[in-house]
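Task card 7
Instruction: Convert sequence to structure tokens.
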Amino acid sequence: MRLGLRPGGRRVLVAVAVAAVGWACGPPASTPTAPSNLLLITLDTLRADHVGCYGYQRPTTPAIDRFAATATRFEDVTCSMPTTLPSHWTIFTGLPPALHGVTRNGQVPESYPPSIFELLGRAGARTAAIVSAGVVDARYVQGLGFSEVIFDRSGAKVFQVSGQVVTDNALAWLQRHRDERFALWLHYYDPHEPYEPPGEMAARFTAGYRGDLPQALSTDWLVGLNDPAAEAALSAEDRQHVVDLYDAEVAFLDDRLGRVLAAVSELGLEGSTLVVIVADHGQAHGERSFWGHGERLLEPVIKVPLLVHLPGQREGRVVAAAVETLDLMPSLLEWFALEPIGGLPGRSLAGAVRGEAIAPAERRLVARRSFPEEPERAGLVIHRVSDKGTFYREPDGETFHIGHADGEGGLDGEDFFVAGDVGSAWLPSEVEHYLAAERAAAAGTSPEDLEMLRALGYVR
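Output:
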């Protein structure tokens, strides 16, 4: 199959979600088998280093950790863009934002490249998505192959729903379609701003806090921490309280997800279903004085968890090689024995899941993030083995930064870039090459879309 764009037909879509298998009813067979179904779970704004199986010491993700015990966990995963809509498009199509053309939230696509859901639908699977935020509702994912898109909100001005709503819809959908072949996407938004975990969960993670901050933090307040004066007003205890509330949101998400994982096993689907759990991007909590995601391409923002479980897989495996979320599409094509798509820049991870070594990529790119009203701003990361090059273009100029893994402060710390130095010349050269090939963002964002983006914290 050759890669090509096609016009997006207007269809009624319903967002359906995918859950991971909890194996609550006993261990699966010892030998992995070819999958019939796909369950793809995306966890919005989940940084890898706040997940238990990635080394986090707090009990944020017991359900995900149980899943990881018999799955393949990829240790070093970089997202394509720390922005929800473009990142999801990359996961579904295997193309970076510069090639699939969706480079910002609120951008309504005019054409659609082939997605894994479209191809599985053509092969006879029932496709669906269950989403939890307006930034990935049917307006933005229609044409990617979903026969239904479910965004179960209570009103037109409701722009996000909790993991409880997603899980309830997922359980009902799986029960209805348990006897059919399916490809299901499940999207959880809870770790994203605002931080408003249920009271019991908040109390579990914030016990002992004696400061003045509330048990719920609004999107405007959290985004406002990027004002130096606002950040300077935080005490060390306040800063930890922000992290505590984020962890409580992650734990709530994990608890809701665990219900779906258990149901997958109880419904007898673990022997036929390939389950993927991945985050679209991470989240910064004051690292380098940055809070949130999008504008700064720091490691906590671009490093995400990725776990894959094949039907019948019984033993856990860890893959240390650096990979990208755009590697998922070629992997899924191989797992489902679909015809390869020419032109995809990623590589299949199927061999790694089988236990085969994969060669490290020479370099990996993370594309820019721009706000709708500031298209001139850009950011770019280039990873090269143990080095990380970062480029930012702002209205007041351009900056370059090279970090070494063994340098002071790690990849985001000590700056080894020297303008005009031979050892630093690779970064401006790579940036120039990349930006020359980058597609312009689609122009025009409607007032309705801007209202939604402001409510979710993407536009100030």
